[in-house]
Amino acid sequence: MTAEARASQLAKAQSSFRDRMRQNGYQRLQEWIPENVFHQLGELCKESGLSRREAIESLVAAANEGKITLEGKRYDDR
């Protein structure tokens, strides 16, 4: 298989995966975070056995249940 054919195959697989995820009610999240926070998230996930997605879902659930209070900068960084 040529590199071009493999690249095309991978692109189709990624597109198919994204389509399936959308159909199942998921939405893609891509954000820039400080490197140290990225590594801290990785350590938390490693220690807890959670994926990054599961950790974010847990954070949102905890905030919605009033278990934690989120505070931060109030601006749109886009």
Order of helices and strands: HHH
Assembly type: single chain
Strand content: under 5%
Q: How many beta strands in the DSSP annotation?
A: 0
How many helices does DSSP assign? Answer: 3
Major pleated sheet: none
**What share of residues is helical?**
55-70%
- Mean of residue pLDDT? 92
Termini Cα gap = 41 Å
Low-confidence segments, given as residue ranges, are none
Structural category is: mainly alpha
Form type: elongated
Radius of gyration: 17 Å
Give an overview of the whole structure:
The chain has 78 residues and is mostly helical. The chain contains three helices and no strands. The model has no long low-confidence stretch (mean pLDDT 92).
Which helices and strands appear, and what pairs or packs with what?
Layout: H1 3-23, H2 35-48, H3 52-64
Features:
78 residues, mainly alpha
Give a concise summary.
The protein contains three helices and no strands. The chain is mainly α.
